[in-house]
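Most newcomers find our protein records easier to grasp once they have seen one. Sequence and backbone structure share a record, each on its own labelled line. To make this concrete, we reproduce a full record directly below:
***
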Amino acid sequence: MKSLNCFFILLDDELKVKTANSKYLDIASSAFEPEKYFIDYVSEKHREKFTAAFASAQKEEECVTIVTAPIELENDTLTIKWSICSLRNHDNGFEGLELFGVQSKLSPKEIEFEGGNNHDNQKILFERTSQPFFSFDLQGTLIKANDAFADLLSYSVTDLPGTSFLSLANGSDISDLTNFIAKALEGNTLEYKCALQDKTGKKVAVKIINTPQIENGTFVGINAFVKKTTGKTQIEKPFNRDEKRLKLVLARLKKVLDSSLDMICAVDESGKFTYISAASDQILGYRAKELIGKDFHDFVHKEDAESTKKASINIKRGTGTTNFENRFYKKDGSIAHLVWSSRWEENDKRFYSIARDATERKLSEANLKASEEKYRVLFYNHSVPSWIYEADSLVFLEVNDAATQHYGYNRKEFLSMKLTDILAEEEVQKYQSFLQEDSCKQCHKEIWVHKKKNGDLFYAEITSNAIEYLGKKAKLVLSIDRTEQTIAEQDVRKSNERITFLSQATFDAMWDWNVETNEITWNEGISKMFDLSDPSEAQKPDWWSNNLHPEDKERVERKKSYHLENKIPRWEDEYRMKTGNSYKYINDRGYIIFNEQSKPVRMIGAMQDLTERKSHEIMLQKLNNSLEKRATELAESNTELERFAYVASHDLQEPLRMVSSFLQLLEKRYKDKLDNKAHEYINYAVDGAERMKRLILDLLEYSRVNSSKTEVEDVDLNDIVKELQFTYKNFLEETNGTINTNKLPVIKGSKTQILQLFQNLIGNACKYKSTAPPIIDISYEDQQSCYQFAVADNGIGINSKFFHKIFIIFQRLHNRDEYSGTGIGLAICKKIIDKHGGRIWVTSTQGQGSTFYFTLPKSK
């Protein structure tokens, strides 16, 4: 600890040195001399600062100016902090200045004396100085003394080292000298008067000035100068001042004490107040004069009386006390909490104390404690999962019941884990990066993926605040399960992205109209659809209305207004819109959004260009009209043809019957007269007539399929097959054949035509059998909209190159001598299938048999 030195200088009205204490006479060879200007001791670069300070101090009576600057003395420089006050006479006239100085930095001579590190300089000073000098260690044992000190006490230099410094004290001064050594060894710089005892026992009155002894930065003992004085121990006045000056200083001191917010007081040995500052009125409600002479202990709270008494004893024993707390009764009976700093002065037999009012602090502490308890209860009973973790280690320090229930861990398990243990694996690395960025944030809120004990993942909204808990930097965390909300937001975000991408990808012009402000926004499609060089044109409120076709404008606007006024949310219309010198056909759809008061506030929609489609529709309509006309003509022609075929078949049968009858009659009457050749010719003619008749009948049957109205009814195909099995019973018995079938469905159709269909197919299978017994299999498959049937045989089969030919009328694949028939049976089958809305086809392998497939609609 470095020593600090204080001194006092009085300047006259000309700012010359009037008087000064002799504080530095032992250090400086030339002190402040009377009748010299003080400013002469100040270095040039600091004179301006002092001149301004002096001028400021002279203006105001109570002005105190602080200046720190070096003072240059002969062979020495001192850095001093000055307090400057003005002196006034009875008429308030300026009489001079008071300068109180405190050295703020050691001078070169003091460094030489106190440094301890420069051993050679200290030795030279010790040996050459004529001033008595000695030093002792931390145990109070003399280490060395110079000749001057030894001569002062009639000792030789070799007698003193190793002896206790207290052994040199006069008996009556041993207690005071012990106190002096103790304070000096605390590092204090003291100026102390006492009586030492020389070798002969004679008292020697001295003044001792000590400084700490420092070696290599360590406090190792005390260095001291000694001056011989005349008279007993007394307080040395630095200079004589008249009573007026003393009163002025004391008045200023009292003003300083009374201006303090702390209560400053002095208490004598019996416990009575001898002085108390004006702050007592504010703190205790008593004026100072009400407390002077009153016993200090009478005001102490009874619960604090014992501790206060013990503290007083400790203070009196020399233990200074700071931050001792007790309670005082105020004048109104309430309690004031006081914090004391106190010291006992043996010379004055008084306690000098400062008391600070801690009532508000105590109240705040009580409120804080209550608040902490309230928040503790709130934390543990909160329905939201909460915890506290250490900011550095991430270890959980506390957790509430809601967290243990939600995450599935018990309290012991939770408090043995780290925060990263409840993070999803993919979040751990992200959290490490987050820690580096978040270290300075007081509050944080973000969505994280957390993991429960059973492995379930969920989205947690984490709100954390930096706090101090159990003396550690920590974070208080609230965890809210936001899984449903987060997934919903993700779905909305994806939906918005899809809408954005769709808006960019589509050729439609998408729009958003603010009904209240009449502002409208479009996507890029509007520019492409209407070839706009400046897309902002479409943003104008009247652009859409102004470009409607005149014939469509009133209708379209009226319909849109009707939807808005009648709160019909969906609107759709087709109209023509101007683009350049032509018009485009537009299909426009919109959806109206209403507010809570059912007022339309927004309408969104999309335009679709129908121009090309409309052109195709017009062309298609023309073609349809043409086809309808042609179809009508064909229908009329077909009707005429069917009527002709029907009539012709009836009219042709009569001549054929006549020819056949007369030929048979001719053969019967002239049988014996005709030769064999004639009979052969007659047979040819009759056979031809019969074949012609059969062709006419088949043609009539084919015509009936087209011309007759189909009576739709439920047709049970199982009954149809049974009837045909009976029809072909004799044939099957003769040929040892079989007709096989499973259960068949019931369909809607013409029973007569369906019977004819199966009869023709089964009849062909019987007709075109092979040498083996005929086997006919009838089956079906239930398909989505129809039944698919199959009639399979093991007959002679069909060459695949004739598949397309067999369903054409009058197309035969065999001679009449081989197989009878007109070649119209399969044509009738196809006609029946077409009329019922199905189709027919065949698969066959020559020599192995054929399978005829056909479809019929399901029964509805």
